Amino acid sequence: MSAAAREFLRSAAEKSADLTHRQIIRRGIDQYNAAFERGRSRFLDWEAARERCQEIKWEAINHLDRYLAEFEQRVKERDGQVFWAETAEEARNYVAELAKRRGVRKVVKSKSMVTEEIHLSPALNKLGIEVFETDLGEFIVQLRNEPPYHIVTPAMHLTRGQIAHLFRDKLGNVDSEEPEELVAAARRALRRAFFAAEMGISGANFLVADVGMVAVTTNEGNGRLCTSVPRIHVAVTGIEKVIPRFEDLAVLWPVLATSGTGQPITCYNTLIGGPRRPGEVDGPEEFHVVLLDNGRSQLLADAEQREVLHCIRCGACLNACPVFRNVGGHTYGTTYQGPIGSVLTPHLRGIHEFQHLPYASSLCGACAEVCPVRIELPRHLLHNRRNAISAKTHSPGERIAFKLWQWTMLDAGRFQAAGWVARMTLRMIYRLGLAGSVLDPMRRWTKYRAALPIPDHSFRALWRKQNGAG
Amino acid sequence: MPCVALFISCFVDQLNPEVGLDTVRVLRGVGYDVDFPEGQTCCGQPAFNTGYWDDARPIAERFVRIFSSAEVVVCPSGSCTTMVRNFYPELLASHPLHAEALSLSQRVFELSEFLVRVAKVTDIGATFPHRVTFHDSCHALRELHLKGEPRELLRHVRGLELVELPYGEECCGFGGTFATKYGMISAAMGDTKAGNIEASGAEYVTALDSSCLMHIDGILRRRASQARTIHLASILAQREGPR
């Protein structure tokens, strides 16, 4: 078992039994569900909108080479710079070198999961650069020295009381639990950072190929400040974010907003096409786009799972997932949590280290039901499991057990004999009051549930009695 | 009389034989002859879902051969029906039996689906004077799209009061080998489900899958809950007075 798997098991056991955590998350997701339902009902035809989004992403991903080249060319035409990073390290180094060369001391960041994926902030911190997360949720988890709990709502695991306590401790400029006061306190702290920073770092929700623009969606306006106030703007993003046309945003923006938070449209949708041009008063002097691969083109090469790259990171599958609700975002130990994380992470970070994630699912399919680009997430979990077995990530014990199971199931007589032996063994053990003990072959079941009632006869035996043999 | 072949899931055969017998009663009650091909064992889902596709394949091949002559196959499980209908075509892709598997996938039905959509009966003549709630098992709901069918059948059961289950579409946490690989998560999900069953005020929770019910039953009894589990087939087989 990998270190990541051991840690997952430990944390899952802790969180699954944490009833306070369960309640906080349930309340948050109930609110989300109500908003999502309202949002969905605003569409004339939600299913048609999903289908359109799926088609757009399909087109983009299946012509990724063409659309990325088009995007790059347009950005360069407006004096923006594009850097292709094959690995996380290359992306980190590019941003770090640029910051060093330009003498950057302070960086403001708007929300970006790709910068989490490449661990950009710690790399900048090492150079003595201060990094300020400016999305409120990200700001909160940064103060707690924690990774984001959820790709869209990074602080959903915290109560207002906990946040008030944190702000009193770390900011010292507020003594209230009122949301308005807390937001005002964060704003006071962040304003100073916005105006002191020499570099702003953002992610990208979409890269619009035909106009060569980066589309950034936020609810707090922090994205606009990050991308327009500092001297340098760097957008760090995955190559799969490209979409063909400007008008595709007409459906992608409302679908993303609805799936993410239930809003008809997010408060701030910004398109950025390059640095400030002669005669313009606003905008950065330099504009850089870092296009990150980091395993994505390998996934692109896999025809069976390519559509995983359609993901627009709305977080709907996390909210729908009963496993996520019980184990919580931090238990995953990954940048991307929930069903999409369990599908994606083994591809980005290796099936040997992360094979446990595709198995941490009851395959209930609630995620596929809500995915706005209709990724068949449960199918991909199954494919990941099959790939894990082919890569021999499992204990020989399980392998042998399934071989034995197969041998048994290849013959009805053997199946009946094995079933009889198993039932009689269990019955004896349960009669002796040994359910859940080391002698109970079903102890992993009985540990959490009352022992199975064991019938006297199999169906087959009863059928024969009623209908005669054969 | 038209004839259906019965497909009894391996754990129903071994652990819930009454569900199989009740399925036979229900099918005969609506005028079908029932055949039980005795060569059958398992559909292969445990291995398939755990990633052991190569181990599952010979079991699937065997299953396809055993049921190849059956005109219609009926199974009292949404999950096992899903395996044959939705996953066999992929598991047996580019296999000599692929065409057979595709054909079988069109001929296999979950019990409530068969009754309502194929046999076109909604009133089985059952009596079950209890307050009952329905848990949507995931494969039946999301893979077979069975939502109205079981409720339609329950509404026609005499004396039965159907109450809504809060968060009824949420997974109970069974999930096959997930239940033992990640017992603590499975149990937490089951606990939430059990709490909602209790909140519904129902005496019984019913579903289309013995597997989910087996897990829910274990959690309910562990909580010393008053609510009990019962498979839909067993409700539909209940008649007035002793049978």
Short summary of the structure?
The complex is a heterodimer of chains A (470) and B (243). With 470 residues, chain A is α/β, with parallel strands linked by helices.
Key descriptive features of the protein:
heterodimer; A: 470 residues; alpha/beta; 6-stranded parallel β-sheet; 24 helices; 54% helix; elongated; B: 243 residues; 8 strands
Query: Which percent band covers the strand fraction of chain A?
Result: 5-15%
Average residue pLDDT of chain B:
97
Number of DSSP-assigned strands of chain A: 10
Beta-strand percent range of chain B: 5-15%
So what's the overall shape of chain A? elongated
Element-by-element helix/strand order of chain B: EHHEHHEHHEHEHHEHHEHEH
How many angstroms separate the termini of chain B? 23 Å
Low-confidence stretches of chain B: none
Largest sheet of chain B: 4 strands, parallel
Shape of chain B: globular
Which strands sit side by side, in order, in the main sheet of chain A? 1-10-7-4-2-3
By DSSP, the count of extended strands of chain B is: 8
Quaternary structure classification: heterodimer
Largest sheet of chain A: 6 strands, parallel
Count of alpha and pi helical runs of chain A: 24
Give the end-to-end Cα distance of chain A, rounded to a whole number of Å: 47 Å
Based on CA atoms alone, the radius of gyration of chain B comes out at: 17 Å
How do the strands of the widest beta sheet of chain B line up side by side?
2-1-3-4
Structural category of chain B is alpha/beta
Q: Mean pLDDT of chain A, nearest integer?
A: 96
Low-confidence stretches of chain A: none
